[in-house]
C-alpha cells in the first residue's frame, strides 16, 4: 500500500466523504508530493479523489465497501478528431495526441483500451496510451475548436460532444456504442454498506426519489430543462438543453436508474488485473433493492 498522504491531502480526502480507503489512497498517491497552493489544484485533487469509478471501489473489499443506489443517466462517449487525416483508429500515428480527463483510470480511458483490444488484440489494449494526454474537457474542446494545438482528438461526452459535433469540422472516430453495443451508465449514486444498513429507510427513499425524478425528466423534458436552467443557468438556452436531452440524438442521453454496461467494464477490468474479484453480474455493484431492474 502507498505511504499515507500528508495532512493537507488527508483533510482533502475527508472533505470528499467516506469512500473506500484503499481506492482513495491509490488514486491520490501520485499527488502526495505536490504542494496545494492554488484553488485550481485543490479543485483538481478533490475531483480526482471523488471520481474514482464504482467498480474499483466495490472491488477493493474493505470495511468501507460501497454499492450503488441507482444509475442516474446513460449516454455515449465519443472520440472526435479535427485532423483531416484521421477518420479511423488505424489513422493514428506516433505524433498524434488524444485528450481525455485521465489517461489510465477513467471510463473513457478504459473505453479506448477496450476498443484497441477489440480491434488489435488483447496485448495491444494500451496501444493508444502513449498518444493520450490528460486535459480538462473545456480546455480540450477549446483546443479542438481552435485547431492551433497538437491536440486534435478528444474523448468526451455531453455537453462537449454536442458543441464539437455541430461545428461540421470535427469527425466522429469512435463511440462507446461501437465498443459496448449500447450506451453506458455515465453516473451513479452510491453509498457505503454501513450507511445503508444503518439507514435503510433513508436509502430506500433516495432510491425511490431517483426513480420519480427520472420518470419526470423523461415525460417532461422541457419542464425539466427549465428547472435545471433555473438552478444551473446555461448560456445556450432551454431549447439547446432540450435538444441535448433527446434520447434519439447520437448521444442517446437517457435518465434511467437501471445500470447499463457495468458488466462489460467489470469483465475488462478483472481481465486487466484492475479488479481482484470477478463480478458475477451488475448486481454485485448495486444494493439488492435495485436487482429487479433490467440492467446489464
How do you describe this structure in short?
This protein has 296 residues and is α/β, with parallel strands linked by helices.
From the structure above, extract its key features.
296 residues; five-stranded mixed β-sheet; two-stranded antiparallel sheet; 13 helices
Textual characterization of the structure:
- The protein has 296 residues and is α/β, with parallel strands linked by helices.
- The protein folds into three domains: 1-52, no CATH class; 53-74 and 184-290, Periplasmic binding protein-like II (D-Maltodextrin-Binding Protein, domain 2), CATH 3.40.190.10; 77-180, Periplasmic binding protein-like II (D-Maltodextrin-Binding Protein, domain 2, 3-Layer(aba) Sandwich), CATH 3.40.190.
- Helix content is 43%, strand content 14%.
- The protein contains 13 helices and seven strands.
- The strands form two sheets. The chain has a five-stranded mixed sheet. Strands 1-7 form a two-stranded antiparallel ribbon.
- Helix 1 packs across helix 3, helix 10 packs across helix 11 and helix 11 crosses helix 12 (238-244).
- The two termini are 32 Å apart.
- The relative contact order is 0.16.
- The model is unreliable at 1-6, 9-24 and 47-52 (pLDDT under 50).
